[in-house]
Design a protein that fits this description.
The complex is a heterodimer of chains A (537) and B (429).
Chain A (H helix, E strand, L loop, with lengths): L1 H22 L7 E17 H4 L14 E9 L3 H5 L4 E8 L4 E3 L4 E10 L6 E18 L5 E12 L2 E10 L8 E8 L4 E3 L10 E10 L6 E3 L4 E20 L4 E10 L1 H4 L1 E7 L3 E8 L5 E12 L4 E4 L9 E3 L3 E2 L7 E2 L1 E7 L6 H7 L3 E10 L10 E4 L4 E10 L1 E14 L11 E12 L3 E10 L5 E11 L14 E10 H9 L2 E10 L6 E2 L5 E16 L1
Antiparallel strand pairs in A: 1-33, 2-25, 3-13, 4-12, 5-11, 6-9, 6-10, 6-13, 7-8, 7-10, 7-11, 13-24, 14-23, 15-26, 16-22, 16-25, 17-18, 17-19, 17-23, 20-21, 26-31, 26-32, 27-30, 27-33, 28-29, 28-31
Chain B lengths: L1 H20 L1 H6 L7 H4 L12 E13 L4 H8 L3 E2 L1 H10 L3 E16 L3 H5 L2 E18 H9 L7 E4 L3 E18 L3 E27 L6 E11 L12 E14 L3 E30 L2 E3 L11 H11 L3 E8 L3 E9 L4 E10 L5 E13 L2 E11 L3 E11 L3 E9 L1 H4 L6 E10 L1
Antiparallel strand pairs in B: 1-3, 1-19, 3-4, 4-6, 5-7, 6-7, 7-8, 7-9, 8-10, 9-10, 10-12, 10-13, 13-14, 14-15, 15-16, 16-17, 17-18, 18-19
The chains are: A mainly beta (537), B alpha+beta (429).
Chain lengths: 537, 429
């Protein structure tokens, strides 16, 4: 029996193993194979309107692109100049001796002159756009008080501001009785000539308080405070003011503006023409003067500086005051000054071709450079300012010689899945170009120490569209660029911390000013041809 | 894979050597005329000596009209499919090809509830079965596209028409009734079925043109795609449930002639409501994902692949769908001779993608009471010509063991199609 048992044990063991093997295929491993995939990945279309905002192009589509750049800004921070400073009046009233105040006795009656503090602005009238007044009275009188409060020269619809027969509760011996009221002064007309009508920046206020006529009177002790009274004006912003607007001066000396984006561009650029128009609009009822002491432009890479060469430099320009009118969109008529800069009267073309990355300027501006010649009849509306409108016109017609855009992009590195299925690939870029310039592209991968790890594109060129006798490109020129990828590149991409992109533009033919048309574009199609590993479990 | 084949060969060697050991014993004992009753315990009309029988069956095979076994085995025993393997397959491809595979395991018990049932030769059968069936028919270009990519078709169209791939994994819990008569046996069973995964890609007409330099793809697709939700289990989603029916009948005729008929897995699965159902008739040109505004674009190139797939796939409908089980039909006539030889002819059919009627001729020889060898030659199924070799190694009072191959060609040559092994073990309690 022993051999039989042994024999069957072997068989059974074999069978069980076989059964397990058949039932339990290895599910953790993968079946993998490589496939060669070829196909388009993406298309990009870079047209003129992708590079220049459509709103800047003013030419007819069939004509060469003509660009008009407009910028507008206000020169004077009017709000900070003419807004009323927050102003408060406060007084404590106490009696010097002890006595009994009979019922109905006036215990406080005063007219106060409130003065808004300006440096040299002398306002005689203001109509408020916004602002508020806060009246606060604390009473320590042991009977009720009744008071009248008014600002006689603050009127709304010809009615002066006033509070009459207001009641303040009797002092309870612990906490003073409080009266507090906030009033919106929007739309109020303020006569700032004071009580006598000959002053400026002044506003009179009046408070009259009396003891409860129906009471029994009250005893007060010498030195006892009876009232604490404050009147505060907060955030008064005028819609209109009249008076002398002062002689405020604004100046910026040796200021710099960094044009960092332009630091990335270098090379030789020639443009056909450029015209800049500086338009100043004065809608203040005051004269205005400004002086540009210096305006220079610097290209850091070549350390070359060009100063604007124009008659406007170092000559104070006067702009006369706006005038009141009775009919019109606005109640005033602005005055204007225009300054034209072109290739004839200035060196603006040289400045533009420099592609400056820094602007240095010194300028000064002042109101009423001739003093108070209006005898206090300057005016200001909230819509008034000294408005600057800068218009730059130029046809997009240029010649570029090794005009280079260089940028360094920081990156955290490119992480790939541990199981990267792309084993090798050629990424082809099919470029179809109708711009009359070629582009030489370089891309470098740098590590954290800025040491070059690899390059993706080196001296690959997108060829320029070919111009005809009329300097127009009719047919695109095709170019093929290739980027090679293999698994070794993975580690380099993982360690990449900077990517240097360098694109060099050359118009073709060289040294000829070539117009750009709106229909020009650069079509890019990315085509992948790679070995991709497919795996299934 | 090498390990598994080695193990299989060792197991086979042990079996054969055991078989050889008994030849001396065979000479000393008179060999009686055998009947099917003596050969396989599983024949229904063999009256069991014990009250219950434990059943363990497993079968794995793949076959194809073209794809070599070495290639298809790379999926059974995962490994990298290199160019040599691919080229061996491609060189054997015809314009129309078929491939299929079956992974099947069954475990169960037949028992007689009491002595009355046993006396009346009535039994109950309960078993669990897990099946994974893969079937396909495809154009040559379909295979090349999947395994070599589309670069080879630059400037040409890859014809994908009349290609289909189906894969179904399901399990069933069956209960059956067995009745043995004097010269015949009958078994019927019903099963509760749960679908685990189903995928069906059916391309009626289709093709992909790849421009010479890869600048565009022209895609034509008329067909359907259906895929069950990936995680359809009873806890996370409505299960994909169904039912099945099976029938088996054996009849012993005079002069050693025996007839068998079997039908199993006649039934359905209702795939749950999360099944992707796509019917698509589309034609489009793909030039790459379009970035209209490159300067401000925040699109990611990673979406390009998804974009192409979305375009190809179109709208996806989620819903339930009823599919038929891969029903299996088997008919056999056998003749048992007095000299311990037997022959049989059978016809098999499985209702599944890529499966054609399988015609099989078998010849068997019994050497001793419990040693038997069976050689089969067949044509059809998922492949063409195929042979099988099976051994009954134990046929004792308690144990029955049959082991062998269901297709040998892939074992013989790496360039040939079809290989598979099976095991059948019964143990009486």
């Amino acid at each position: 029996m022993k051999p039989f048992k042994f024999k069957h044990t072997k068989l059974l063991f074999s069978c069980i193993c076989l059964f397990l093997m058949l039932s339990n295929c290895n599910k953790n491993e993968k079946t993998e194979w490589d496939t060669n995939i070829l196909g388009p990945l993406a298309t990009f279309n870079i047209g003129v309107t992708d590079l220049i905002a459509d709103s800047l192009i003013i030419s007819d589509p069939a004509q060469p692109v003509f660009i008009r750049y407009i910028d507008e800004f206000n020169l004077i921070p009017i709000d900070s100049v003419l807004q009323f400073p927050d102003t408060a009046f406060e007084e404590n009233y106490s009696t010097p001796f002890s006595f009994t105040i009979p019922a109905g006795t006036d215990i406080y009656s005063e007219d106060q002159q409130l003065r808004f503090v300006y440096k040299d602005v002398q306002l005689t009238q203001a109509i408020l756009e916004q602002g508020r007044s806060v009246l606060s009275i604390n009473s320590t009188v042991s009977d009720k008080l009744y008071f009248d409060y008014s600002i006689p020269k603050a009127t709304s619809n010809n009615f002066p501001f006033s509070l009459t027969n207001q009641e303040i509760a009797a002092f309870d011996g612990i906490n003073p009785s409080l009266f507090n009221q906030e009033t919106n002064l929007s739309g109020y007309n303020l006569d700032l000539t004071g009580v006598d009508g000959n002053s400026f920046n002044s506003l009179s206020i009046s408070l009259n308080a009396k003891l409860n006529p129906s009471g029994n009177g009250t005893n007060v002790i010498a030195g006892q405070q009876l009232l604490n009274y404050s009147s505060t004006f907060i955030g008064l912003k005028p819609y209109y003011v009249k008076g002398f607007l002062g002689t405020s001066t604004f100046s910026d000396v040796n200021k710099n503006i960094d044009l960092n984006d332009l630091k990335k561009i270098s090379g030789i650029l020639s443009i056909q023409d450029i015209v800049m128009n500086l338009n100043l609009e004065n809608s203040l009822g005051a004269d205005f003067g400004f002086t540009i002491n210096n305006l220079s432009f610097t290209k850091g890479e070549s350390n070359q500086t060009i100063a604007l060469n124009s008659t406007i430099i170092n000559n104070e320009q006067l702009i006369a005051r706006a005038q009141h009118i009775n009919n019109g969109t606005y109640p005033y008529s602005p005055t204007y000054r225009n300054y034209l800069f072109n290739t004839t009267n200035s060196n603006i073309k040289d400045i533009f071709e420099l592609i400056p990355d820094k602007i240095n300027y010194s300028l000064a501006a002042r109101i009423n450079p001739l003093g108070n010649i209006s005898s206090g009849n300057d005016f200001y509306y909230s819509s008034s300012n000294l408005k600057v409108k800068l218009t730059v016109d130029f046809p997009l017609s240029f010649s570029a010689n090794a005009l280079t855009y260089k940028d360094t992009i920081e990156t955290e590195g490119f992480e790939f899945d541990e199981e990267n299925n792309l084993k090798s690939a050629t990424l082809s870029i099919l470029a179809s170009n109708t711009f009359p310039f070629d582009l030489k592209l370089k891309t470098y991968l740098l590590d954290k120490d800025k040491i070059v790890l690899d390059s993706l594109l080196t001296n690959d060129i997108i060829n320029a569209g070919i111009v005809n006798n009329s300097d127009i490109v009719e047919q695109p020129t095709n170019s093929m660029l290739k980027i090679f990828y293999n698994e070794a590149l993975n580690a380099k991409l993982k360690n990449t911390r900077y990517i240097v992109v360098k694109a060099t533009m050359n118009t073709q033919p060289g040294n000829v000013l070539l117009p750009i048309y709106k229909q020009y574009d650069l079509k890019l199609q990315l085509i992948g041809n790679g070995i991709y590993r497919i795996g299934i479990k | 894979m090498l390990k598994q084949i080695t193990f299989f060969l060792i197991a086979l060697f042990i079996c054969i050597s055991t078989f050889a050991q008994d030849t001396t014993k065979q000479k000393t004992n008179e060999v009686t005329i055998i009947t099917p009753k003596d050969i396989e315990l599983r024949y229904l009309w063999k009256i069991p000596k014990f009250n219950a029988k434990f059943i363990l069956e497993s079968e794995v095979f793949s076959n194809s009209t073209a794809i070599p076994a070495s290639f298809s085995n790379s999926f059974l025993f995962p490994r990298f499919i290199d160019e040599t393997l691919k080229n061996n397959a491609i060189n054997r491809l015809n314009s129309k090809n078929r491939f299929g595979a079956l992974f099947q395991s069954k475990i169960g018990i037949i028992f007689y509830p009491d002595s009355i049932w046993k006396a009346q030769q009535q039994g109950i059968e309960i078993y669990y079965k897990n099946q994974n069936v893969i079937g396909s028919y495809f154009h040559t270009d379909f295979f090349k596209l999947i395994f070599n990519g589309n670069a080879q078709f630059a400037g040409q169209t890859a014809d994908l028409s009349n290609s289909r791939f189906s894969s179904l994994n399901f399990e069933s819990f069956n209960i059956g009734y067995i009745k043995t008569f004097k010269l015949s046996g009958l078994s019927v069973n019903v099963g509760l079925v749960r679908g685990r995964a189903y995928t069906d890609l059916n391309i009626k007409n289709g093709g992909i043109f790849t421009a010479l330099n890869g600048t565009q793809l022209n895609v034509d697709f008329n067909g359907s795609f259906e895929q069950s939700s990936r995680f359809s289990n009873v806890f996370k989603a409505t299960p994909s449930m169904g039912a099945s029916f099976g029938l088996e009948y054996n009849l012993q005729l005079p002069k050693g002639i025996n007839l068998d008929f079997k039908a199993e897995d006649i039934g359905f699965i209702n795939l749950n409501e999360k099944t992707d159902l796509i019917g698509r008739d589309t034609s489009f040109i793909f030039n790459g994902l379009n970035f209209n505004d490159i300067i401000d674009s925040d699109k990611d190139l990673a979406f390009i692949g998804d974009s192409l797939l979305d375009k190809l796939r179109g709208p996806v409908t989620k819903g339930s769908n009823m599919i038929a089980l891969p029903a299996f039909f088997h008919t056999r006539i056998s003749k048992y001779f007095t000299n311990n030889w037997n022959i049989s002819l059978s016809i098999n059919y499985r209702y599944f993608t890529g499966y054609s009627i399988l015609k099989k001729f078998e010849i068997g020889k019994r050497f001793t009471k419990d040693r038997y060898i069976l050689l089969s030659i067949a044509q059809g199924g998922f492949g063409n010509f195929q042979t099988g070799l099976q051994f009954v190694l134990i046929n004792s009072q308690r144990h029955f063991l049959k082991i062998g191959t269901v297709a040998n060609e892939g074992f013989i040559s790496k360039k040939m199609s079809g290989n598979g092994i099976m095991i059948n073990y019964n143990f009486q309690l």
